[in-house]
Amino acid sequence: MTDMASLMEDRAAAKVISDNLHKPVDWDSPKIARNIKKRYAAERRFKMYGLSAIALALLALFVLAGSIGSKGYTAFFQTYVQLEVTFDAAEIDPDGTGDPAVIGKANFDGLIKQALRDRFPDVTSRQAKRDLYAIVSGGASYDLRERVMENPGLIGQTRKVWLISGDDFDMLNKGYISADVDEGSRRLNDEEIAWYDSLKSDGAVEKQFHTRFFTNGDSREPELAGIWGAAVGSLYTLMVTLALSFPIGVFAAVYLEEFAPKNRFTTIVEVNINNLAAVPSIVFGLLGLEVYLNVMHLPRSAPVVGGLTLALMTLPTIIIASRAAIKAVPPSIRQAALGLGASPVQTVTHHVLPLAMPGILTGTIIGMAQALGETAPLLMIGMVAFIVDIPGGALDPATVLPVQIYLWADSPERAFVEKTSAAIMVLLAFLVLMNGFAVYLRKKFERKW
Amino acid sequence: MAVVSQSAMTAQPSVASPKMTARDLNLSYGDNQALFDVNLDIVERQVTALIGPSGCGKSTFLRCMNRMNDTIDGVTIKGEVTLDGRDIYDKRIDVVQLRARIGMVFQKPNPFPKTIYDNVAYGPRIHGLVNSRDELDQIVMTSLERAGLLKEVKDRLQSPATGLSGGQQQRLCIARAVAVSPEVILMDEPCSALDPIATAKVEELIDELRSNYTIVIVTHSMQQAARVSQRTAFFHLGKLVEVGETDQIFTNPKDERTKGYITGRFG
Ligand SMILES: Nc1ncnc2c1ncn2[C@@H]1O[C@H](COP(=O)(O)OP(=O)(O)OP(=O)(O)O)[C@@H](O)[C@H]1O
Ligand SMILES: [Mg+2]
After folding, report:
1. Is the pLDDT reported for residue A117 higher than 70?
2. Which of A19, A363, A384, B211 is the residue whose CA sits 20 to 30 A from B152?
3. Strand pairing partners for B188?
4. ipTM of the complex
5. Which of A241, A243, A283, A263 has the alpha carbon at shortest distance from A369?
6. Rounded to an integer, what distance in angstroms lies between the CA atom of residue A77 and that of residue A83?
7. Is the pLDDT of residue A3 over 80?
8. Cα of B226 to nearest chain A Cα, Å
9. Residue A247: pLDDT band by 50, 70, 90 thresholds?
10. How is B74-140 classified by DSSP, letter by letter?
C-alpha cells in the first residue's frame, strides 16, 4: 500500500517536472518583456561607456595638442629688423681684390653695429651700446657675409637689409615681454623698449617664417637654435636601431615559434624576453654605457651607440609582436606547404612570414616609435651633449629629438619655452608619419595576402 | 561488445608487391600510445580505405606514411614504413623529397591565400620540376583538369583561391597535390566538409586518379569506402583489426568488431 502510494507520488513528481520542461514559453509575458528591456538598457549603457572613453581620450589629445600648439606655433616665426647697412668698401675689401677669402674674413659684425649706431645716434654709454647691439642676433653677421659673397657688387653701397633679431627683442615683439611690468623685473629696460617702438613705427620690425629652426643644429642663442641636428641624430639612431632589431627580432621570433623544441631552455628564454620588455629603459642605458663605451670603446654621444642601446630595448617588443603574428598564421597553411614537400624554411619564408608580416611590421613600428621617444638610456651614453653641428654620419656626436626637448626645456632663456613646444610638435609629426607609414605597409601587405 | 581473441587479428593478408608497407608500427603522443603493432600493405594503383571509429588512429596512421607526424612535438615512432621497399624512416631519406612523392590532401580544404594558379604552381616551382613558364602553365592546366576543376576556374586563374567554394577549394587542393606528380596520395576525410554533389565529384575524381596514383583515403562513410576503394582496413583503438578486399570486408567480415562497426552497432 505504501509502495503504491510512493510510486504514485513519484509519478506525480515526475509529471510536474516534465510539465515544467514542456511548458510552452509565453514570449509576450511581462517577465520576458522586462528581460528584453533590461538587455537593451545594458547594451545602451555599454555603448555609452565606450563612447565616453573615446571622448575622454580625444579630449586629452586635444588639450595636449592645443596647449603645445598654442605655445609652440610662435617658434615657427622669427622677428627680423630692417636696418640700413653700409657695405663699406674700406671695411670689407680695402684693397679692392674681390678675393672671397678676404671678403670672408671681413668684420660684418662691425657693419651691423655701425648700422645700429647710425639708426640710434644718441646712444653713447658703453652699457647702452651693448644693449643696442643685442637688438640684432649674433648670427646676423653670417647672413650678411653670405649675402656679400654671393653678390660682391654690394660692396660700397648702402642697402636696407632685414636682419635676424636677438631673442629678447623677438620675445618683446611676440608679446611675451610686457612693457607694463616694473622695469626692474623685466629683461628689457625702458630705453630698449623705446628703440623697439621707434623701429616698429618705421615698419622696420617684421615676423618671418623661421626656416633656420628647421635647418640649424642646436645653439646657445635661442634665435639660432634649430631642430635639424636633433632630427638627423634621431634618424641615424633609428636607422641603426631598425637595422639591428628588425632582423634579429624576426629571426628570434621565427626560431622560437617554428623551430625551437619546446623544452625548459626555450621556456626560460621566453620568460626572459617577456621580462626584458618591462625593464626600465635607463637600465638598458647603463648596459650600453658599460658594454659599448667602457668595453668596446665606441665613440661617445654617437648615434651608433644610441641605436645599439635602443635596439636592446626594442628587441623584446619586436620579438613578442612577431611571435604573436606568426602564431596567428593558421597551422593548416603550414601543413599544406609541408605536405607538398616544402622544407620548413620554405614553409616559413613562402607562407608564414608573408602572412605574419602586417603584424610584425605593426610591432616593429610601435617599437620604433618607442625608441624615437626614448630619452633616459641616451642620457647614459652621452647623447645629451650640446652639439651644434649637424651629424654627418652615425659615428658623429649627435643628440636626438626627445633629448633636445629635454635640453631646451631645461634652458633658462624665455625664448626656449616656445622652442620646446615646437620641438615636441616636430617629434609628434615624426610619430604621426611613422604610424601613417605603418598603416600604409599594413594595407599594402594585406592586399597581397 | 564482442571480445575477440588477440591472435585472430595479428594474421593480416600480405600482398605480393606492395607500394607501401607498415610493419609493427607503434606510435605514441608522449605517454599516450595511439598505434599498436600495425601491419598493413598498400597496393599500387588501388584505393585503400581506412575506416574505424573516431579516435582509433586513422589520421595518425596516415600521417606516418608521409612523416607528417615528424612535425608534432613529442611523437615517438617504432617500426617500419616502406615505400617501394625502402624504409622511409631511414636517416638517409630526405623528408622533403619523400613528401613530394607522397602527397597529402587534408580534411579541411587549406588552399594558400594566393591565386588559384599559384596554388597549383607552388609544388612544381619549389621542386624545380619545370624549366619554363609554358611548362608550368601546362602542369597547372593538366592538374586542374585532372582534379575536375579546370572548367570552373579557367577564366579566373589569377583570382584568390580563398574565393572558391568549399568543394572547389578541396578539388584545388587535390590539383595542388597532383601537380607534383606524387606516387601516392593520402587523403584524410577529403569529403567531410563537402555537400553530396561535391562529394560525388571528388569520388569520381578519386576513381579516375586510381589509374595513375596509389591512393589511401580515410573516411567515416561506409558507402564512400564501398564506392571508391578496392581494399579496406578497419582500425579500432589504435589497432588494425582487419584488412582485405573491400567486397569481402563489407559482405563477409571475419572479425566481430568489423561486423559490428559496418553494420552500425558501435562506432
Ligand atoms: N597531435 C596529437 N597530440 C596528442 N594526441 C593526439 C594527436 N593527434 C591525435 N592524438 C590522439 O591519438 C589518437 C588517434 O587520433 P587520430 O586523429 O589518429 O584519430 P582518427 O582515427 O583520425 O579520428 P577521427 O576519425 O575522429 O579523425 C586519439 O586518441 C587522439 O586523441
Ligand atoms: Mg582523423
Report:
1. yes
2. B211
3. B218
4. 0.87
5. A241
6. 19
7. no
8. 27
9. very high
10. TEEEEEEEEETTEETTSTTS-HHHHHHHEEEE-SS----SSBHHHHHHHHHHHTT--SSHHHHHHHH
pLDDT in tens, A305-326: 999 999 999 999 999 999 999 9
CB spacing of A343 vs B96 below 8 angstroms: yes
What three-state secondary structure class fits A153?
helix
Inter-chain residue contact B126 with A342, CB threshold 8 Å: yes
Whether residue B267 is predicted with pLDDT greater than 60 in this model: the reply is no
CB B40 within 8 A of CB B233: yes
For residue A209, give the nearest of A248, A244, A162 by alpha carbon.
A162
Cell of A175: 608679446
Which of B36, B59, B64, B106 maximizes ligand 1 atoms within 8 Å of its Cβ, making it the mutation to test the pocket?
B59
Write the residue with the smallest CA distance to atom 29 of ligand 1.
B55
Chain B residues with CB inside 8 Å of A342's CB?
96, 122, 126
Q: Sheet harboring B102-105: ordered strands across? A: B102-105, B184-188, B214-218, B47-51, B231-236, B239-245
Task: Give, for ligand 1, the residue of B25, B38, B60 to mutate: max count of ligand atoms closer than 8 Å to Cβ.
Answer: B60
* Superfamily of B2-109+184-262 according to CATH: P-loop containing nucleotide triphosphate hydrolases (3.40.50.300)
Binning pLDDT at 50, 70 and 90, where does residue A448 land?
A: low
In this complex, is the C-beta atom of A193 within 8 Å of any C-beta atom belonging to chain B?
no
Q: Quick one: average pLDDT of A83-107? A: 82
Of A239 and B9, which is predicted with more confidence? A239
Nearest ligand 1 atom, CA B62:
18
Contact B228, B206 (CB under 8 A): yes
The SS3 call for residue A307 is helix
Contact B255, B71 (CB under 8 A): no
The predicted pLDDT at position A2 comes to: 56
pLDDT of residue A118: 87
**Is the pLDDT at B155 greater than 80, yes or no?**
yes
Cell of A243: 637595422
Q: What mean pLDDT is reported for chain A?
A: 88
Which residues in chain A touch residue B99, judged by CB atoms under 8 angstroms apart? 338-341
Residues 6+ apart with CB under 8 A from B266: B1, B53, B257, B260
pLDDT tens, position by position, A279-302: 998 999 999 999 999 999 888 888
CA of B60 to the centre of ligand 1 (A): 6
Q: Please, which residues have CB within 8 angstroms of residue A304's CB and are 6 or more apart in sequence?
A: A236, A240, A298, A394, A395
Section B63-71 average pLDDT = 90
Q: Is A231 exposed, middle or buried (0-12, 13-18, 19+ CB in 10 A)?
A: buried
Instruction: Check A341 against B108: CB less than 8 A apart.
Output: no
Could you tell me the pLDDT band of residue A125, with boundaries at 50, 70 and 90? Answer: confident
